[in-house]
Amino acid sequence: MDNEELVINDLKRIILNTSAKSGEGHVASAFSILDILWVLYKKIIKVNPLDPYWSERDIFILSKGHASLGLYAILAYKGFFSISELDKFCTLDSFLGGHPDCNKVPGVEASTGSLGHGLPFALGIAFSKKIQKKISDVYVILGDGECNEGTIWESALIASNHKLDNLKCIIDYNHSNDRALKLGDLKAKFMSFGWESYVIDGHNHEQIYQFLLKKSNGKPLAIIAETIKGKGIKQMESNPAWHHKSPNKEELEIMLNELL
Amino acid sequence: MRKQFVLTIERLISDDENLAILLGDIGVFGFRNVFQKYPERIYNIGICEQAMTSIAAGMAKEGLHPVMHSIAPFVIERCFEQLKIDVGFQKHPVNIVSVGASYDYAALGSTHHCPGDVALVKTINGINIIVPGSDKDFDLLFSDIYKGPTANYFRLTEKGHSLDFSVTFGKANLIKSGKKGIVIAIGPMLERVITACLNLDVSILYYTTLEPFDSAMLIKCFVNSKVAVVEPFYEGTMSYDIHSALKGHSINLLSIGVPRKFLSKYGVASEQDILCGLDTQSIKSKLEIFFGNEK
């Protein structure tokens, strides 16, 4: 295991412990996007934990807000707040809830949870940066189930029509939504809406890095990240039973050991 | 009022580089001069009201002063959850400007009617609600608050009055004083209310800001326990605010507004007024029964 994997496994252990303690959280969804968040915050986006509202920062929006535990772990790791705050996750006075609240959590740019809001909101920010001639990028992670929402496709049309090449959308394609509506070839769909689009392995750090750096020449960028929901935990991987479930004591012990 | 909306924007946009307009494929021809002069700050987003709302919220987050515009049912009812979460909950100061009011588009049928908009927006904490009665009201109120820290909903109608009052955001105007009770005239209802009350010894209060509601003025003028409200949207919409303002008082409240049902006929707005009991004669009759018609 290299150093990055060790850190990510540490973060996964923190997420598991947080969920077990609180009895809350969408752990499998958090694990689905953790590698993407890691690369984004480690190598791609400009942010300053000491000045969360720094005017030249890039913007990241977790549109699939139920994966908040993944974002909280990364933000804490980056120093936006103490990791000990996760001990209070979902308690009455905690600022860390089941879905992220931008009016409470340093480093969170949008309050998400209801699906289909993050992309058009990110689009509005990207639009503003063009109008104001600011050079920063706007990143957003969507879930595949979220792509059922009409606002995603409204936004897809609008973003390409207005050539918002500062908008980078990553779709966490863990196929958990296949049981409802099969989305098929998402790359082709986004391309047909006028986006630059690529399919990557959403757990391969080098691929995530290389494709997020792609210049999209006047088009918004869609990265279709093939991921595994619950990545790294055998009984959780692609198992719908774990969508919104916290491990009990015995399950926690097994899972923590898996990550050693 | 729609023409005044365009004139007001044309005036403001030249001095405010953060003013940005988003149209839901409505009003595009009216704004042709703005499109020509400021193409980087006005966009026909298309018939995508839900996305348009979230886009406006994202723009407000970045410091722009976005104005989003379409017909009332599409810019309020269609995208209610976007208003709730991206505008209200996240506290982004978006300006929403609707046309069509309750049934300005009477001939187009129920899909284009929207007498429930104010009641809906009132459930969202953190959106001011402004119902101008005239072109002048709109110009004054919009110019005063559109850059403020709170989101605003401006409800425009084509049936405004031509009276000349100076209105202030958050304040009701006392039009006349009387001893038998209060009649609240909301926005475009003012002229009808004044005519209907010519022979009534009542106070008339003129409200153009409905959220926040000017409780102080209502309390100050409260006499004889009787309050009537003439509202150009669903009857009873303002009841909560009136009861809250007069908490502790025994009140007898009459709501005269649009009946709570789908309006299944067409015609023109003035015909719908008669069917809804919102024409001057119907209002007068109801008020005279409520207050007694002797002066």
Per-chain topology:
The complex is a heterodimer of chains A (260) and B (295).
Chain A: H1 3-22, H2 27-44, E1 59-62, H3 68-78, H4 118-131, E2 138-143, H5 150-161, E3 167-173, H6 186-192, E4 196-201, H7 205-212, E5 221-226, H8 249-258
Parallel strand pairs in A: 1-2, 2-3, 3-5, 4-5
Helix pairs in contact in A: 1-2, 1-3, 1-8, 2-3, 2-7, 4-5
Chain B: H1 2-13, E1 19-23, H2 32-37, E2 42-44, H3 49-61, E3 65-71, H4 72-77, H5 80-89, E4 95-99, H6 117-121, E5 127-130, H7 135-145, E6 151-155, E7 173-176, E8 182-186, H8 190-196, E9 203-207, E10 209-211, H9 215-221, E11 226-234, H10 239-245, E12 252-258, H11 269-276, H12 280-291
Major sheet characteristics of chain B: 7 strands, mixed
Instruction: Supply the helix-strand structural class of chain B.
Output: alpha/beta
Helix content of chain A: 25-40%
Distance between the termini of chain B: 35 Å
Q: Find the CATH topology of chain A.
A: Rossmann fold
Give a quick rundown of the structure.
Chain A is α/β, with parallel strands linked by helices and 260 residues long.
What does this structure look like?
The complex is a heterodimer of chains A (260) and B (295). By secondary structure, chain A is an alpha/beta fold. Chain A has a single domain, classed as Rossmann fold (3-Layer(aba) Sandwich), CATH 3.40.50. Helices cover 38% and strands 11% of the residues of chain A. Chain A has a 5-stranded parallel sheet, sandwiched between helices. The radius of gyration of chain A is 17 Å and the shape is globular. The model of chain A has no long low-confidence stretch (mean pLDDT 97). By secondary structure, chain B is of the alpha/beta class.
